[in-house]
Design brief:
It is built from 13 helices and eight strands. The chain has helices at 42-45, 48-58, 75-87, 99-111, 188-207, 213-235, 240-259, 264-275, 281-294, 301-312, 321-332, 350-361, 374-384, and strands at residues 12-15, 32-38, 62-69, 92-97, 138-142, 154-159, 162-167, 175-178.
Length: 386
C-alpha cells in the first residue's frame, strides 16, 4: 500500500435520475458548444440529443453537432472534429453518449487548441509525447455505464494498430451529468459488456501497484454495486434502481482510474480491439479476465478475498473465491461463453497481440502485482481463445 498519494478530481459531478435537466440551468464554460455523438442512431432516436439541444437553447448557447464517432474511436475523427470546433468557433465541447463519444470529445477538445497531429501528443507507441498547451473545457453526459470517463482524465483513441490511452489534467471534464434514466435504452448484451468494463477498471485499479487507500474505497464500492445490480440491469433494462447502481459504479470506477490505474489486462485487450475494431472492449476484457486474474491470486490473497466478499457479502475462505464469484457473475449476465472467433479474431494473431500490447501500452505491465513474462501473456491469450 502506498503511504503517500495525491488525489485531484476537479470534475463537478451531478448524479441521479432527471439530472439531465440541470444542463438548462447549470453555469456552462462557454457560449458555443461542439456536441460530440456517435455515428449511430440512438442519440437522436431516444431524444437524448434533443434534450441537450433544448437545454443549450434555453441558456442562449449556440452549438454544432459532430456525429461520426465509432465504437472504437479513431484519430481521423478526432482531427475532423477538432477542425469543425475551430471552424465553428466553439469554446467548449460536450461528449454525449458512451465512452467512445466522451473520450473523443476530450481528444477533440485537446486538438481544438493545439497544432499538429493528435499523435504528436500521445505517449506510447509511435506517439511523440509533446506537451500540449491546454484544451477546451469538456462536459460529459454518459448514456452508458462502463468507462467512467466522465470522472477521469483519460481518453482512448486508435490509430492504425495502436489503441492508446492518453490523459492530462485539462482533460478531466469540468462537469459530468450522470442520469441513469438515459441508460435504460442500452440493449442487454451491451449493458453487460459495459458493466464489466467498469468492473475491471475497479478490480485492476484495486490490485495495481499504485493503488491508494482512497482508490481502494472507490474500487470495492464499485465492485459491490456491480455484483449486486449488473445482473438485474442486464435482465431488465427498465429496472431503474439497478441502472442507478450500475451508473454509480461506473462513475466510481472512473474515480479509481483518476487515483490508481488499470493494469495490463487493458493493455492486452486494447491490442485485440485495435486490430479487430468490431470487438467490443468489454467483450474482449471478459474473454481474458479469468485467465488474467488467476495469475495474481498468490500476489494479493488478502485483496482477492476482499473483492470476493464485496461481491458475495460472505466471508471468503480463499483468494480463489474471487475467481469463482467472477465466473458466477459472468454466467448471471449471460457473457460466460464469449467466443473471440465470432468477432473474426484468429488464434494465429496472438503473438501479434503480445507485440502490440508491449509496444503501445506496455507501461501498464509495470503496475501488475508481478511482472508478467511473455510466456505468461501468451498463455493468458491462448487459454481465453475460443
Amino acid at each position: 500500500m502506498i503511504a503517500k498519494f495525491t488525489q485531484q478530481i476537479p470534475t463537478k459531478l451531478i448524479f441521479g435520475c432527471g439530472t439531465i435537466n440541470s444542463l438548462a440551468t447549470e453555469k456552462l464554460p462557454g457560449r458555443k458548444a461542439l456536441v460530440v455523438i456517435s455515428s449511430g442512431t440512438s442519440m437522436r432516436k431516444y431524444g437524448y440529443l434533443s434534450m441537450v439541444e433544448k437545454a443549450l437553447e434555453a441558456q442562449g448557447i449556440a452549438y454544432a453537432v459532430f456525429d461520426k464517432i465509432q465504437a472504437n474511436p479513431v484519430k481521423e475523427h478526432v482531427m475532423e472534429g477538432a477542425a469543425l470546433a475551430r471552424k465553428e468557433s466553439c469554446d467548449f465541447v460536450i461528449g454525449l453518449g458512451g465512452g467512445s463519444s466522451i473520450d473523443s470529445a476530450k481528444s477533440i477538445a485537446l486538438m481544438a487548441v493545439n497544432d499538429g497531429d493528435y499523435w504528436d501528443y500521445v505517449i506510447g507507441g509511435s506517439g511523440k509525447g509533446m506537451p500540449p498547451k491546454g484544451a477546451l473545457p469538456v462536459i460529459a453526459i454518459p448514456t452508458t455505464a462502463g468507462t467512467g470517463t466522465e470522472t477521469d482524465p483519460w481518453t482512448v483513441i486508435t490509430y492504425k494498430d495502436e489503441k492508446i490511452g492518453y490523459g492530462t489534467l485539462e482533460l478531466f471534464p469540468q462537469i459530468a451529468i450522470v442520469d441513469p434514466e438515459l441508460m435504460v435504452s442500452v440493449p442487454s448484451k451491451f449493458t453487460a459488456f459495459q458493466g464489466f468494463d467498469a468492473f475491471f477498471h475497479a478490480a485492476e485499479g484495486y490490485i495495481a501497484s499504485i493503488a491508494t487507500p482512497v482508490s481502494d474505497l472507490y474500487a470495492l464500492k464499485s465492485i459491490s454495486l456491480l455484483a449486486k445490480s449488473l445482473p438485474k440491469a442486464v435482465a431488465d433494462g427498465s429496472d431503474i434502481e439497478a441502472r442507478t447502481d450500475v451508473a454509480l459504479a461506473s462513475t466510481l470506477s472512473g474515480m479509481v482510474e483518476a487515483t490508481s490505474c488499470c493494469t495490463s489486462e487493458h493493455s492486452m485487450e486494447h491490442a485485440m480491439s485495435a486490430v479487430y475494431g468490431n470487438l467490443p472492449h468489454g467483450a474482449g476484457l471478459i474473454s481474458i479476465s479469468l485467465a488474467y486474474f488467476s495469475r495474481f491470486v498468490n500476489d494479493h490473497p488478502a485483496k482477492y478475498k476482499k473483492m470476493a466478499e464485496a461481491m458475495t457479502g460472505s466471508k471468503a475462505s480463499s483468494p480463489k473465491d474471487f475467481l469463482k464469484a467472477l465466473a458466477a457473475m459472468q454466467k448471471q449476465c449471460g457473457v460466460d461463453d464469449i467466443r473471440l472467433s465470432d468477432y473474426g479474431v484468429k488464434e494465429g494473431d496472438i503473438p501479434r497481440f503480445l507485440e502490440i500490447a508491449r509496444r503501445t501500452v506496455g507501461n501498464l505491465f509495470a503496475l501488475d502485482p508481478h511482472l508478467l513474462s511473455d510466456e505468461e501473456v501468451l498463455s493468458i491469450y491462448k487459454e481465453s481463445y475460443r
